[in-house]
């Protein structure tokens, strides 16, 4: 079995892959001080709840938070007796090229999404990931990562509004019934929701114009389903894009 771990700025996701399907997917908050023992206590408790017999032979990690990687390495070594493959490290091979400015560090999550998107949809893609940041990753016809766009995440924008303006409450993002809000919460929801609809549409249109070719737009991330319903912004939604990419990268390294 393969344990795929995706560590983001807000949440860390663990998925168990048996070679054909994901047996379960577990989430915990990302915290750099969490020890290997703490990871295993949490992980094994939930796995037992699902009635899964653990037989982890391989571990692959993608992390946008470098400080957590050490404890995740210890977790893999101590409890599963394996050296994890870490995306972004020299020993981790990628099945696609990365064509960016020399010296540029591309987030591992963006590389993993590129691999997954190309594997499922082919090339000429725009991958929109609604995470802590809202990222746009551009995939060339041959699957290469060729750059993208980084914008503030939806929840980050809401939190900034709440913290910077004393009269504005903390709210959850939702699609408003009308564009014109008749109370503070509706006004904020409308501004954030329709503002991000406009942001996604405009950035994708400009990328397509710059590339001068048809491109598919694929969404992923926690808030993607909310925006998926809005005016056909996306050609497809992938809820397990990153995890799929990790399985593809793992298999590529085993084969090479």
Automatic annotation (TrEMBL):
Ligand binding (ATP): 6-13, 132
Positions that bind substrate: 107-110, 184
Residues noted as binding K(+) in the record, renumbered to the chain: 129
Catalytic activity: (R)-pantothenate + ATP = (R)-4'-phosphopantothenate + ADP + H(+)
UniProt-listed InterPro entries: ATPase_NBD, Type_III_PanK
Function per UniProt: Catalyzes the phosphorylation of pantothenate (Pan), the first step in CoA biosynthesis.
Protein name: Type III pantothenate kinase
Organism: Cognatishimia maritima
């Amino acid at each position: 079995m393969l344990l795929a771990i995706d560590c983001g700025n807000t949440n860390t996701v663990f998925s168990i892959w048996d070679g054909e399907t994901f047996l379960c997917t577990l989430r915990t908050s990302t915290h750099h001080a969490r020890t290997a023992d703490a990871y295993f206590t949490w992980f094994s408790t939930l796995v037992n709840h699902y009635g899964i017999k653990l037989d982890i032979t391989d571990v692959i990690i993608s992390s946008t938070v470098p400080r957590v990687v050490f404890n995740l390495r210890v977790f893999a070594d101590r409890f599963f007796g394996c050296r994890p493959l870490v995306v972004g490290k020299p020993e981790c091979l990628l099945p696609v090229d990365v064509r960016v400015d020399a010296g540029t560090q591309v987030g591992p999550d963006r590389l993993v999404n590129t691999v997954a998107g190309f594997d499922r949809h082919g090339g000429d893609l725009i991958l929109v990931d609604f995470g802590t940041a809202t990222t746009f990753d551009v995939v060339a016809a041959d699957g290469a990562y060729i750059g993208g766009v980084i914008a503030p995440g939806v929840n980050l924008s809401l939190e900034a509004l709440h913290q910077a303006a004393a009269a504005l409450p903390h709210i959850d993002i939702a699609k408003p019934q009308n564009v014109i809000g008749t109370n503070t919460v509706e006004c904020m929801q409308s501004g954030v929701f329709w503002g991000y609809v406009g942001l996604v549409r405009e950035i994708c249109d400009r990328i397509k114009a710059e590339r001068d070719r048809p491109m598919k737009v694929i969404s992923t991330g926690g808030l993607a389903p909310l925006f998926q319903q809005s005016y056909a912004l996306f050609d497809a939604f992938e809820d397990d894009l990153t995890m799929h990419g990790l399985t593809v990268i793992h298999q590529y390294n085993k084969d090479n």
